[in-house]
TrEMBL record, chain A:
<protein>
    <recommendedName>
        <fullName>Alkylglycerone-phosphate synthase</fullName>
        <ecNumber>2.5.1.26</ecNumber>
    </recommendedName>
</protein>
<feature type="binding site">
    <location>
        <position position="483"/>
    </location>
    <ligand>
        <name>substrate</name>
    </ligand>
</feature>
<feature type="active site" description="Proton donor/acceptor">
    <location>
        <position position="546"/>
    </location>
</feature>
<feature type="binding site">
    <location>
        <begin position="284"/>
        <end position="287"/>
    </location>
    <ligand>
        <name>FAD</name>
    </ligand>
</feature>
<dbReference type="GO" id="GO:0071949">
    <property type="term" value="F:FAD binding"/>
</dbReference>
<feature type="site" description="Important for enzyme activity">
    <location>
        <position position="387"/>
    </location>
</feature>
<dbReference type="InterPro" id="IPR025650">
    <property type="entry name" value="Alkyl-DHAP_Synthase"/>
</dbReference>
<keyword id="KW-0285">Flavoprotein</keyword>
<dbReference type="InterPro" id="IPR016167">
    <property type="entry name" value="FAD-bd_PCMH_sub1"/>
</dbReference>
UniProtKB/TrEMBL annotation, chain B:
<keyword id="KW-0012">Acyltransferase</keyword>
<dbReference type="InterPro" id="IPR002123">
    <property type="entry name" value="Plipid/glycerol_acylTrfase"/>
</dbReference>
<dbReference type="InterPro" id="IPR041728">
    <property type="entry name" value="GPAT/DHAPAT_LPLAT"/>
</dbReference>
<protein>
    <submittedName>
        <fullName>Dihydroxyacetone phosphate acyltransferase-like</fullName>
    </submittedName>
</protein>
<dbReference type="Pfam" id="PF19277">
    <property type="entry name" value="GPAT_C"/>
</dbReference>
<dbReference type="GO" id="GO:0008611">
    <property type="term" value="P:ether lipid biosynthetic process"/>
</dbReference>
<feature type="domain" description="Phospholipid/glycerol acyltransferase">
    <location>
        <begin position="127"/>
        <end position="256"/>
    </location>
</feature>
<dbReference type="GO" id="GO:0016287">
    <property type="term" value="F:glycerone-phosphate O-acyltransferase activity"/>
</dbReference>
<dbReference type="InterPro" id="IPR045520">
    <property type="entry name" value="GPAT/DHAPAT_C"/>
</dbReference>
Length: 633, 669
């Protein structure tokens, strides 16, 4: 392990104090007597998580996010976001219902309610491997076979999965949930699983949108969901080298909160940061919105420990770069829980920026916007985050405008006032908005801001204020809750993403939308779907594009199936237009069928060879990415 | 698409002023992603395109030309190329064409409902209009029809031969024509400029794009084998994902009588054609005083390139190279070839067969003419056969057949005459007494006769595509009347391959073609199974012999070419041009005709003789090679000999051994 000598450093001491306040964790840790040495070192970094061990106490069992936060239709028939956690909480959104009705052809009066609370008897009986259970019980590691715990771990957040929770039941769920408390616990569990031929599916934050957590229905062995949430300590922080090491189960918001208290940040902010975990990020090759400054997960990771059935894989040093054959990190990152468990990650950190400033630009049309982002990328002066919403998404943002009296004044009205003369030429049905986030030293931020707005003006873009920018980012977290409201009213929705070279961005966006519309029509969807996209990341050679897509499914007997067919068609279209299978959501099971065409047969062969060596028994049997032929067992 | 429903668009206009018509509101739909731009802007966009700029850069490093030089060359090219579609010219044209068409034609039939549907579709994706091409009138007609239906006026890829005509050239440009050099072989800059010009118009969907897959006008009235270059360029934006889809519309334009009929007959015989010049067109004024009957313009079933490509083409491959570089995979080449064939086959399917065509087919089998009564009888029989095979024949159900035939004869009074004796005869030059004729004079008279006869032939030609597949099956049977199915298929395959250039067959579909034909013939009781063999029924004999007569001139022509090639000394390595070969064979054919050894004047057609060379090349019987940039040909004697022998098993040929003195000493080289 690394040298901890610099702990005496002033900020580190404060870190200890602060954590002393917050950590009142009396969970399963006390049981880990055998790991005393390890524990002592950890003590300084124990973190109290926002999420409880039995997640359903805090989180919805059949929808997105916190139990207490959701969209409802109030007595006046208006949409309202209840709860207290977000800036939008407690606010009424007068135009949302009308907007939804208009853009999906729906009617808010039509209700498609979810089934009430899950009855334990609706969850399949567990398959048990008695010998394994016996050995595990001797380890003194926390576990549960409670049906509700098991079901909670059976899924991620694709439409398909949520739909099953609302209207059906899973055919296969994990047979036991185990909460390891340390790296060594993981080693032991993996060893036992290998001995007794039990299947393990690591569980981080459960936010996957690729079907990665689904249990293969044909799996006959006992399935363990290895819930990493109790391994959420920050083990150390090294200011000299600007790195920190944390356990794989720590949730994004906990990690950031703790680091911020100490004056640091990882800068890794996927939109799911409230719930997704460090190990999950590594396992899925995640990407955060501020990657322009901080990098994506592959740029941030300095060291990883992963427990595999063969043993522990890790590097023997924590260096910025090395030339030692193919980088084993790149085998671990994106392995999607198929090779082992990420237990500890050392990651780069940065001091918190002196200044954080939001911004926004309106463009006459999407083409101008894309051209501008391309130019900003060419000049390599992209702010920490830059996102370009198309017109539909812009209008959607308008529909999420709460009643007056808040920061949320009318965007268009505000702009019209701002640009009495220049407003001409901006058609509300064409214009689109880029939201910006600048971070850094004050003068840097101001200089960069100036430069970005200058470039924007070359593309006829006008600055549209900080508030609009901030609002854009805030809405990101809230939008995830909207799907549940839609589902209450016959509207299914989903998002998907891709990466694509710059010169194909516009064509890809246009063709994919067209495909979605036509496929819906052909598949008997009675109303035109809502489809919208945004460019969420810029790179030197291309961009990441994110699509939202929703349709009203009244009159369809199997909306999820229709949805899946349409999404498959959209993916075919993306690939045909030169886009990738995924920029950051990963492959899981949902996108498996395209993997060989994406990486070639030899590529698949290599992945199989790695799997075959690392996990010949297919203990990590989630069957994500590839399927290993059974014969070799 | 079911049976097209036609309406006569001239009818309403006869009482209406031309000026009023030309000033009508015209507000066609537009492709939804189109960003409107002026023709000049299109040219600018081409010159600023990565495709053109990168070729300029390459050429500048490879040759000693400067980038500026190359850029001005490119500018000159795009200027020479560019259309200049303008509303004012459209209105002028509307006025002008309305006047002329009303004078020339009795009716112009259009399947308007289908065109209106197409107009709606044109909002959703760029459209390619691909008409058949048998007359200059084609593209004028199509623009006129578009104007009538408030359909967006197409931009039209035209051969550069019009460009030379000052006034007409400008006029055509203003009406949307853009010009393509006939051959620009390896001129990379021209290719880049042209490709970009075509593709930018398609990507932005400024206007529907019209061009002729056949590449040029078919003088013979038979469809020509498709050309792939322009179609490939036009389809590429779909392959690279630059557009969602492209709608391809095969269009069939059928004429009762073409303006250029005499001209074409001369061309086919090699009597020099006047260069297309304005004054030439003006001289054609007398042509305008005639009546040309009806025209049918049929917009065929629109094809979605996307649907056709589904499962056949993996477009993601184009993610691996820059978009301005054209790259076609072999699947894509095949795809374009199939598409081109499909378009031509669709054009054929919706061609409207005029009664003249039936009359001509019967007349060609009666070189001395026949009685009207007999003619009508035969024509009615033939019509029935054609309709049975799915042809659309313009044959008013209630009209008296002999009136239909008579008006067809009337329409073609320059070719045939219905005598007072009730006999229908061709207007052949008056025969002089053969003995007193010089060789030259005899040839000359032969050509004069051929001119008339070929006009009958081009009439017949419009009918051939209907019968060709069943005809080849029946010809394969001809010798002893019965054959095993396998043997039949083998000979059918041989004939299909031999005649590939003269008729349009979908590549690779021999078996389907054969099976459908045999199936049809069996259902029609023309063929029957006899103990493991297939044979012609008694009732089928008539069809067999009629079709045999109809198609044997092609085999005779090819056979003549064989004989000509066999007289060429096999060890002459210098080779000959197509022209030398076709002229030589034509001479030989002329001799055979003047000596009465053969009767069919079709074999004088340079077009057919040229096709035979192409076919022989693809069958390996003639070698093609390049010398000083010219294509030269050398027969492979053994192959030619065996081809000739195979043909002789199918048609009757004169015995040249006994008539050896009539074979001229080879006149070439
Ligand atoms: C609303 C929403 C927004 C999102 N935004 C983003 C975004 O901006 N950027 C982004 O990249 N993704 C995003 N995602 C996708 C998802 O959040 C990421 O894939 C995330 O990295 C998953 O982390 P998790 O901890 O939730 O993993 P889980 O969902 O629990 O698991 C995902 C996969 O990783 C494996 N796994 C988890 N933990 C470990 C471990 N410790 N060791 C080994 N394998 C493990 C699991 O077995 C599974 O195969 C979003 C998802 C949602 C629902």
């Amino acid at each position: 392990m690394a040298d901890h000598g610099n702990k005496k450093d002033a900020k580190s001491r404060r870190f200890e104090t602060i954590l002393g306040h917050v950590s009142s964790n009396d969970g399963p840790k006390s049981a880990n007597d055998k790991d005393k040495v390890q524990l002592k070192m950890k003590k300084c970094g124990e973190v109290k998580s926002v999420i409880s061990k039995h997640r359903q106490e805090v989180l919805k069992w059949n929808g997105w996010g916190y139990k207490d936060s959701k969209f409802i239709i109030n007595k006046k028939g208006l949409a309202e976001f209840v709860g207290e956690r977000y800036r939008l909480s407690g606010m009424v959104l007068p135009s949302l219902v009308t907007w939804m009705e208009k853009n999906t052809g729906g009617d808010i009066q039509h209700i498609s309610p979810a089934q009430p609370e899950r009855k334990p008897e609706d969850v399949p009986e567990p398959v048990t491997n008695e010998d394994f259970l016996k050995d595990v019980s001797e380890l003194d590691i926390s576990c549960s076979q409670d049906p509700l715990d098991r079901e909670f771990h059976a899924h991620g957040h694709t439409l398909h999965e949520i739909f099953i929770l609302r209207e059906g039941r899973f055919k296969r769920v994990p047979d036991i949930v185990i909460w390891p408390g340390s790296h060594d616990d993981v080693v032991k569990v993996v060893r036992l699983a290998t001995k007794h031929n039990v299947c393990i599916i690591p569980y981080g934050g459960g936010t996957t949108v690729s079907g990665a957590l689904l249990c293969p229905e044909e799996e006959t062995r006992m399935i363990v969901s290895l819930d990493m949430s109790q391994m959420n300590n920050i083990l150390w922080l090294d200011e000299k080298n600007l790195t920190m090491c944390a356990e794989g189960g720590i949730i994004g918001q906990d990690l950031e909160r703790e680091l911020n208290l100490k004056g640091f940040t990882t800068g890794h902010e996927p939109d799911s940061i409230e719930f997704s975990s460090l190990g999950g990020w590594v396992a899925t090759r995640s990407s955060g919105m501020k990657k322009n400054i901080y990098g994506n997960i592959e740029d941030l990771v300095v060291h990883v420990r992963m427990v595999t059935p063969r043993g522990v894989i890790e590097k023997n040093c924590q260096v910025p770069r090395m030339s030692t054959g193919p980088d084993i990190h790149h085998v671990i990152m994106g392995s999607e829980g198929t090779l082992g468990v990420v237990t500890e990650v050392t990651m780069k950190i940065r001091p918190l920026p002196e200044m954080k400033k939001y911004g926004s630009v309106i463009f006459r049309n999407f083409e101008d916007g894309v051209a501008c982002l391309r130019e900003i990328a060419r000049q390599r002066c992209a702010p920490s985050s830059i996102r370009l919403m198309d017109n539909m998404q812009f209008q959607f943002g308008q529909a999420l405008k709460p009643q007056a009296g808040s920061i949320f004044t009318s965007f268009v009205d505000g702009l019209k006032k701002m640009y009495i003369t220049k407003w001409k030429g901006f058609d509300p049905n064409e214009l689109c908005v880029a939201t910006l986030l600048f971070e850094g030293a004050k003068e840097e931020v101001l200089a960069q801001e100036k430069r970005v707005y200058e470039i924007a003006s070359q593309f006829r873009g006008l600055p549209a204020g900080e508030e609009n920018g901030q609002r854009g980012y805030m809405l990101t977290f809230v939008i995830a809750y909207l799907r549940d409201l839609g589902l209450e009213h016959y509207i299914v929705s989903e998002s998907f993403e891709t990466s694509v070279p710059w010169d194909r961005v516009l064509d890809l966006c246009r063709n994919v939308k067209e495909r979605l519309t036509r496929e819906c029509h052909e598949k008997g969807v009675q109303f035109p779907p809502m489809n919208t996209c945004r460019v969420t990341q810029t790179y030197d050679s291309g961009a990441c594009v994110y699509f939202y897509f929703a349709f009203n499914y009244r009159g369809l007997s199997d909306p999820v199936h229709v949805y899946e067919e349409v999404e498959n068609a959209a993916r075919d279209e993306i690939l045909a237009c030169g886009g990738s299978l995924s920029h950051h959501h990963g492959v899981g099971k949902l996108r498996k069928k395209w993997l060989s065409q994406t990486v070639s047969d030899v590529g698949i062969g290599m992945m199989k060879a790695v799997k075959q060596y690392t996990d010949p028994q297919n203990i990590f049997g989630s069957n994500n990415l590839i399927t290993l032929e059974k014969a070799k067992l | 698409m079911s049976r097209p429903e036609y309406e006569d668009i001239l009818e309403g206009k006869r009482q209406y002023s031309d000026l009023g018509f030309s000033m009508e509101a015209y507000d066609p739909p537009r492709y939804k992603h189109c960003k409107p731009r002026a023709p000049e802007k299109v040219k600018e966009d081409v010159l600023n395109s990565t495709r053109v700029l990168s070729v300029i850069e390459q050429l500048a490093t490879e040759t000693d030309q400067s980038e500026d030089d190359l850029l001005s060359q490119a500018r000159a090219m795009v200027e020479e190329m560019g259309h200049n579609l303008r509303m004012r010219s459209i209105r002028f044209f509307a006025y002008f064409l309305n006047k002329i068409f009303k004078a020339l034609y009795k009716r112009i039939y259009v399947n308007g409902d289908d065109l209106e549907k197409l107009a709606k579709m044109s909002k959703d994706q760029p459209v390619l209009l691909l008409p058949s091409h048998r007359s200059y009138i084609d593209f004028l007609m199509l623009s006129y029809v578009a104007y009538c239906y408030d359909f967006p006026l197409p931009v039209i890829a035209a051969g550069a031969d019009f460009m030379g005509m000052k006034f007409v050239g400008t006029l055509l440009r203003n009406c949307g024509a853009f010009f393509m050099r006939r051959s620009f072989g390896s001129d990379r800059l021209y290719w880049a400029v042209f490709t970009e010009y075509v593709q930018t118009l398609i990507r932005n969907g400024d206007s529907p794009m019209e061009f002729f897959v056949e590449g040029t006008r078919s003088r013979t009235s038979k469809s020509l084998s498709p050309k792939f270059g322009l179609l490939s360029a036009a389809i590429e934006p779909f392959l690279t994902g630059s557009v969602y889809d492209i709608t391809v519309v095969p269009i069939s334009i059928s004429y009762d009588r073409r303006l250029e009929e005499t001209l074409y007959a001369r061309e086919l015989l090699g009597i020099p054609k006047p260069k297309e010049s304005t004054s030439g067109l003006v001289k054609a004024r007398s042509v305008l005083q005639e009546n040309y009957g009806n025209i049918h313009v049929c917009f065929g079933e629109p094809l979605s390139v996307r649907k056709l490509a589904e499962g056949r083409i993996d477009r993601s491959i184009h993610g691996l190279h820059p978009r301005h570089m054209s790259m076609f995979t072999s699947e894509e080449h095949t795809f374009v070839q199939h598409l081109a064939h499909q378009v031509i086959l669709a054009q054929q399917k919706y061609m409207v067969i005029s009664p003249w065509s039936l009359v001509a087919a019967v007349l060609s089998q009666h070189p001395q003419g026949l009685l009207l009564k007999k003619l009508v009888h035969e024509v009615v029989w033939l019509k029935k056969q054609a309709v049975g095979l799915g042809a659309f024949v313009n044959w008013p159900a209630k009209a008296d057949p002999s009136n239909i035939v008579k008006s067809a004869l009337e329409l073609h009074h320059h070719v045939v005459t219905l005598g007072a004796n009730g006999r229908v005869v061709l207007n052949l030059p008056t025969p002089t007494r053969p003995k007193m004729e010089t060789e030259m004079a005899r040839k000359h008279r032969l050509m004069e006769e051929a001119e008339v006869r070929l006009m009958v032939v081009t009439g017949t030609n419009q009918l051939l595509h209907v019968f060709v597949r069943v005809a080849l099956v029946l010809m394969a049977l001809s010798k002893d009347g019965s054959q095993t199915r396998d043997e039949l298929f083998r000979i059918f395959g041989f004939l299909r391959r031999l005649l590939e250039k003269d008729f349009i067959f979908m590549p690779g579909q021999d078996k389907q073609d054969f099976d459908t034909a045999v199936q049809y013939l069996s259902r029609a009781h023309v063929l029957e199974e006899r103990g493991g063999c297939v044979g012609v029924t008694d009732s089928g004999k008539k069809l067999q012999s009629f079709l045999h007569e109809m198609f044997s001139p092609f085999l005779l022509g090819y056979w003549t070419m064989c004989q000509y090639l066999l007289t060429a000394s096999s060890d002459d390595p210098r080779g000959s041009t197509t022209q030398q070969l076709t002229r030589g064979a034509q001479d030989m054919a002329a001799t055979l005709l003047t000596n009465g050894l053969v009767k069919r004047f079709e074999i004088l057609s340079l077009d057919m003789l040229g096709n035979s060379i192409t076919s022989f090349v693809s069958m390996g019987a003639v070698k093609r090679f390049k010398s000083n940039g010219h294509a030269l040909f050398l027969p492979v004697q053994g192959e030619i000999f065996s081809l000739s022998k195979q043909i002789e098993t199918i048609i009757a040929v004169p015995d040249l051994k006994t008539a050896v003195q009539v074979i001229p000493v080879k006149s070439r080289l």
